[in-house]
Amino acid sequence: MIGSGRKELTPRLVTDFAALLGIDARDLAALTGVILCEVPPSPPPEAVDAAALLWEGRRLSAAQARHVSEIARSMRGDSRDAHLMELPRF
Question: What is the pTM for the complete model shown?
Fold first, then answer.
């Protein structure tokens, strides 16, 4: 939505995207032309770990991603039918 101009890129989104991408928010703000009113804090360790996990997940096949999703659901005690994520089948 940001790319199509339907949503504004805000300082908050810049800092969130920076944490997800694992780059400094000030660098991303400079690249996007968004002015940060204050120096953003470092992302919490959980966000850094989640970003690293998501980055590594890009290498999974659709079948592997489904398997990981099923394991995560079972670890949470969720039923198999709860919150099903439809992944493309290749």
Answer: 0.60
